[in-house]
Design a protein that fits this description.
This protein is of the alpha+beta class. It has helices spanning about 1-75, 75-80, 85-90, 95-115, 150-155, 195-200, 235-245, 305-440, 440-470, 485-490, 495-500, 520-540, 595-605, 630-635, and strands at about 115-120, 125-130, 160-165, 170-180, 185-195, 210, 220, 230, 255, 260-265, 270, 285-290, 295-305, 480, 505, 515, 545-555, 555-565, 610-615, 620-625. Among the domains are: about 75-200, Beta-Lactamase; about 475-635, Histidine kinase-like ATPase, C-terminal domain (Heat Shock Protein 90), CATH 3.30.565. The strands form five sheets. It has a six-stranded antiparallel β-sheet. A five-stranded antiparallel β-sheet has the order 2-1-5-4-3, with helices on both faces. The model has no long low-confidence stretch (mean pLDDT about 85). The structure holds adenosine-5'-diphosphate (ADP). Adenosine-5'-diphosphate binds near residues 564, 573, 582, 590 and 592. It is an enzyme of class 2 (transferase).
């Protein structure tokens, strides 16, 4: 069962973890998607920016190109209208002096205008005069009838063409105009060639500029490596046209090793084709614009690496900023939650405390009430106890009284027994004495009277002892030292002790401690006990030794032990030992009141008296006394 619960718990935890993992994964995917989306839009924005810049630069270039070319636009017309040229072209054209003069004229004009060549052809395209008449490859004697600019001028219009110079091998822009005679007939064509170098130099913006003709072939570029490259495949008719016009060096025309990677709304992303000599270093944005002045297309290729890097950085920054904002928001929410939780907790705690205080107060009231009740009950009980103690005391009194009566009965019997015999003896002695006196035997009579006196004395003693036993008046208990009564008792009996050869030992172990008692009474008890011991040991032939020692049964009591080497107390006597008139002593020796009186005396001191046989023979008497100052108090 427990295992099931644990399994369920584990499962729950597992599902919770799984849910957490799923939420985490989802959040991760969403974050990545959001970052990617951010990156794409930032990148597009960067590309748009690049595109706009490129377009602006292209427009600027086109304007400058137009302005530059416009300078040359009207030049062929002006030259064609020069009277010397018109007259020369109208004539035989074979006067060498005239030819040289005009060659020089054209040379000057060419230098003035800033073109690379100026030359004049007749209607067949044959060149008669040229500014480069003195160069290594002069145009003079060459026919350009295949060039479109010649044909356009011969047809009466202004001609314009760009292409590779077939004689010079230099690319250039050709302008042309017809030479007309006085009647307006076309008698020749003037051509001005402008080199492409300065046109290419006009480009000073970032990226690579290429200008392509209607076939897509590069004829101007800021980078010479691009020239004659074809952006798209040249069609057959295009090829035929190229051949007919001898526009470019056909051997150099080749497809450009770049491929369009993506077509963007404005431009296109291009990258170098694999395995071909790289014209481009990595991905570029390609932006094109018509250049109307040349009926061509201008294209700029700008590297995108910077834009991509900027986009990445901006995306990361955005992500970081968003994450920071989220964290701050989360922290704020958490803080708010903690705050409200703590407030709730504190409110609850205050409520609990209040409840608890109330409860405590109620409990205190209840407890006080209970205590008062208990106190009242105790008072009642104390009262009851007191009255019971009174009753008990009364009962005890009664009991003592009845005990006394019982004892009186015993004593009466004892007295009867004890006194009857001496009284009988007294009567007998008195009778004898009277008889001896009658006979005049005074000595004998005196002996008998003496006996009588002794017997009376004995009887007197018995009565005296009985008086002690039955004494009613309370004993006056005082504080006394223990050693003094002990010493007195031994002193009283010293003759007997020494006569019997009794050795008394252990006296020094008895401390002179303060006890409660009466000196006379205690001396009497001790004398009685030592005397009994002496009597007992007198029956023995062995060593006679009386050993005194002390014991401390409790802090407030001291027990003096008197142990003898006598025969001990016979089994059958033990119960009756302290009964009045119990004695084992023969004849008149003992009356059996000693121990009974002694115990009474000891009890009247608050102490006690008891006896028991010692394991190694002999009897031992235990005299217990209350200490005047309890041990603990002494210790202090
Ligand atoms: P009494 O000495 O007159 O006999 P006690 O009351 O003093 O009366 O003693 C009662 C009896 O207790 C004695 O007769 C004796 O048998 C016994 N007794 C007392 N002391 C000793 C003792 N030290 N050894 C043995 N018996 C004892």
């Amino acid at each position: 069962m427990i295992r099931d619960a644990l399994a369920r718990l584990a499962e729950k935890r597992l599902t919770r973890w799984t849910a957490l993992a799923l939420v985490g994964a989802l959040a991760g995917v969403l974050s990545v998607a959001a970052l990617w989306a951010a990156y794409v839009s930032i990148r597009d924005w960067q590309f748009r920016d690049l595109d706009e810049q490129a377009r602006r630069n292209l427009d600027l270039y086109a304007v400058e190109l137009g302005l530059t070319l416009a300078q040359f636009e009207a030049v062929p017309d002006l030259i064609a209208k020069h009277p010397a040229i018109v007259s020369f072209m109208s004539g035989s054209k074979d006067d060498p002096v005239e030819v040289e003069r005009l060659n020089r004229l054209l040379e000057t004009m060419n230098a003035e205008v800033g073109s690379s060549d100026v030359y004049v052809m007749d209607r067949t395209g044959m060149t008669f005069i040229a500014s480069n008449w003195r160069s290594a490859a002069p145009f003079v004697g060459k026919s350009f009838e295949y060039r479109p600019y010649f044909r356009q001028a011969l047809a009466g219009g202004r001609g314009r063409f760009f292409g590779l110079g077939t004689t010079s091998g230099v690319r250039g822009h050709f302008f042309s105009a017809p030479v007309r005679d006085g009647l307006g007939r076309i008698i020749g064509v003037v051509a001005v060639k402008v080199p492409s170098g300065p046109l290419e130099d006009l480009w000073n913006a970032p990226g690579t500029l290429i200008v392509t003709d209607e076939l897509g072939i590069v004829f101007l570029s800021s980078d010479p490596a691009w020239v004659y490259g074809a952006l798209s495949e040249v069609t057959e008719s295009g090829m035929a046209q190229l051949i007919a016009t001898r526009r470019y060096d056909l051997e150099k025309v080749r497809p450009l090793p770049i491929r369009i990677q993506a077509q963007l709304p404005l431009g296109a992303l291009v990258e170098p084709e694999e395995g071909s000599p790289a014209l481009l270093d990595g991905e570029h944005l390609m932006v094109s614009r018509k250049v109307p002045v040349m009926a061509a297309t201008g294209t700029v290729l700008v590297p995108t690496a910077d834009a991509r890097f900027r986009s990445l950085m901006l995306t990361l920054l955005t992500g970081f900023a968003v994450a920071s904002l989220w964290l701050v928001a989360l922290a704020l929410v958490q803080y708010q939650q903690n705050l409200s939780q703590r407030r709730r907790f504190e409110a609850e705690r205050a409520k609990h405390l209040e409840e608890w205080a109330g409860e405590l107060e109620a409990r205190v009231v209840e407890r006080t009430r209970e205590l008062r009740q208990a106190n009242d009950a105790l008072s009642v009980e104390i009262g009851e106890r007191e009255s019971m103690a009174d009753r008990l005391r009364a009962m005890q009194g009664d009991l003592i009284q009845s005990e006394k009566l019982a004892a009186l009965g015993k004593i009466s019997a004892g007295i009867n027994h004890e006194l009857n015999q001496p009284i009988g003896a007294v009567l007998a002695y008195a009778d004898n004495a009277r008889k001896f006196l009658e006979r005049g035997m005074n000595d004998r009579a005196e002996e008998n009277l003496k006996e009588i006196a002794e017997l009376c004395d004995r009887m007197g003693r018995i009565v005296r002892d009985l008086k002690v036993y039955s004494r009613q008046e309370p004993v006056t208990v005082e504080v006394l030292g223990l050693r003094k009564p002990l010493g007195s008792a031994l002193r009283i009996l010293r003759h007997r002790i020494s006569d019997l050869g009794v050795e008394v030992t252990g006296l020094e172990t008895v401390p002179d401690i303060q006890v409660l008692g009466a000196e006379t009474g205690l001396t009497q008890v001790l004398t009685n006990l030592v005397s009994n011991a002496a009597d007992a040991m007198a029956e023995n032939d062995g060593p006679r030794r009386l050993t005194v020692s002390v014991d401390w049964p409790d802090l407030s009591t001291i027990t003096v032990i008197l142990a003898d080497t006598g025969p001990g107390i016979p089994e059958e006597s033990q119960e009756r030992l302290f009964d009045p008139f119990f004695s084992t002593k023969k004849g008149e020796k003992g009356m059996g009141l000693g121990l009974a009186i002694s115990r009474n005396v000891m009890r009247s001191f608050g102490g006690d008296l008891s006896a028991r046989n010692r394991p190694d023979g002999g009897a031992a008497f235990y005299i217990s006394l209350k200490r005047a100052v309890p041990m603990s108090a002494v210790a202090e």
